[in-house]
Amino acid sequence: MKQDFFDRVYKIVAKIPKGKVTTYGAIAEVCGIKSSARTVGWALNGAKMSGLPCHRVVNRLGALTGKVHFGDIHLMEELLRSEGVEFDDEGCVIMRKYFWQPKKIKKSKKK
DNA sequence: TGGATGACCTACA
DNA sequence: CTGTAGGCCATCC
After folding, report:
1. Residue A13 lies in a domain
2. Model confidence over A52-79: pLDDT tens digits?
3. Range of the domain at A68
4. Is A58 helix (H, G, I), strand (E, B) or coil?
5. Total structural domains in chain A?
6. Residue nearest B10, CA–C1′ metric
7. CATH number of the domain that residue A23 is part of
8. Which bases of strand B have any atom within 7 Å of the beta carbon of a protein residue?
């Protein structure tokens, strides 16, 4: 299985500092699939089972689109607020202040 | 091999 | 602004 892709997403999400959030597009770009942010969200579908802070991953607008799959809709927001993340009237994260750009991951050795 | 799904993004009416 | 359509990539059946 090419969990290589999963591995990248996991590493990135796991590296997200507290009080910061990143977007699917950013992760996708770092993963090398900038053209497909969908796969990132799909990967997160399993990430939530991996115990990753998927609540720090939001869409380009900063909206908590994955809150539904995350489990509890309010939980996601609560966690972010708990980390110091603020939301605007639209319930979107202040990307301008809390956006975190992940670093490119080292290509996993073949295997 | 190919259709269907997925937590997205962009474009157009 | 809302709705529809297409695209892009990875995985499942």
Report:
1. yes
2. 899 999 999 999 998 888 888 889 999 9
3. 2-98
4. strand
5. 1
6. A35
7. 1.10.10.10
8. 5-10
